[in-house]
Structures are given as C-alpha cells and as structure tokens.
Amino acid sequence: MRMVCITDLHGDPQALDRILSDAGPADVVLLGGDITSFGTPNAAEFLVRRAMEHCPQVLAVAGNCDSAAIDERLASLGVSLFGRGVIIQGVGLYGVSAMPPWTGTMYELSEDEIAASLGTGRSQLTQPQREVVLSHTPPRGTLLDRTRRGEHVGSVAVRQFIEHIQPALVLCGHIHEARGIDRLGATTIVNCGPAFDGQYAVAEVDADVQVELRDAGR
Questions:
Q1: Mean pLDDT of the chain
Q2: What are the pLDDT digits (tens) for 108-132?
Q3: What residues have CB less than 8 Å from 85, skipping those under 6 apart?
Q4: Rounded to whole angstroms, how far apart are CA atoms 79 and 57?
Q5: What pTM was computed for the model?
Q6: What single string gives the DSSP state of each residue in 138-184?
Q7: Cα 145 from Cα 19, distance rounded (Å)
Q8: What is the CA radius of gyration of the chain?
Q9: Residue 11 falls in which region: left (phi positive, over 0), alpha (psi -120 to 50) or beta
C-alpha cells in the first residue's frame, strides 16, 4: 500500500496541491495534524476535500494548531483516525490528535488521554497484517522530537505505546526542525516535516516498510 503522508500544512492549499502533484498516485493520503493554523472546521474540511480530489481515501488527525471542533468535523467526514481504527489492504491504521500539555492555549491532551485514544483505535482492528499509527506529536526522546534548543518535547505516552506494541510504522510531525526517520525497536518512525515548506513522506507498506522523505518545493 502506497501512502502519501502530509503533516503541518498550516492551511496552505497551494502547498497541498504541489505535494499531491509531486507525489503521484496513492492508495491513501494521510493528513497528520496542523491541517490549519488555528483555523475553522470549514477550513479543515476544504483542505480534506481538496486532498480527496487527488485520492478518494483520505485519513486524518488534528494537530495542536487545529481544535477539538476540527476533530469533530474530521469524524463527521468519515476521515478521522483519532481513537479510530480502520483496515485498508490488510494494513490497520489508527491515530491520535493534538499534543501533550504545554501552554494550555492550544489543542492539548493529557498523556493518559493520548494513551487511551491509541488503545481505543487499535482495539477496533481485527488481525491486521501490519499496523500504522498516525500521531501528530512524535514519541519522546527520539531524533524526531528535538527542538532547535535541544529539548525533547514529544509524547511519553506515544513512546511507551510504541515500545509495548511495536507497530510497523509511526508517522508524525509537529516539530518542524526535527524532520527525519528514526527507529524504536522494530518500529520505523517518521517525522514528515512541514508541508507548508513542501516537505512530506511517501511510505510503502507491504511485507516490508519503505519510507522516502520528499520535497515538492515552495
């Protein structure tokens, strides 16, 4: 299964168009949060539907610069992976929105809420061949959650979940400067980079997992 993974779009439809044109055909387009930049549910829906023009199968979670209302809209559109599990071509996908507590002024979830939503999504899968997690925030203490000041600001719950479950692939974003690929045990973890800069990832999930970081330009 070929997945185009886009995070941190921050409301830029032109960047979305460039990425989807550059990416080529996909079985699934994943929108990994910060779809908007403190935008409305209508703004998020506009971008989801724009992605659907390229690939009818779009799945998404919200980011810290989105909102609970956007999460509700994603659910109403049938594209949400927040606390929800779906199987496509034998691959089980589930995810979590928002970020761990920080300033209290963004879309934030407690670590317990993050853990619970991942568990709920996974519980809805029936014997998937592979598991893929879409999480806006990276796991704590990896190459993918380090800020420019060297601080690790990812989710402890996401890391603990990965260490315990070992899904095949975890796709995340949030920390723009920490784009890259890392591993925790048998799990490949990818920070796709900021889509508003044209950065994204393509993942092939079959017997093996192959990931390519790509750049569609600005």
A1: 97
A2: 999 999 999 999 999 999 999 999 9
A3: 92, 93, 94, 121, 122, 123, 124, 125
A4: 8
A5: 0.97
A6: PBTTSTTSB-TTS-B-SBHHHHHHHHHH--SEEEE-S-GGG-EEEEE
A7: 23
A8: 15
A9: left
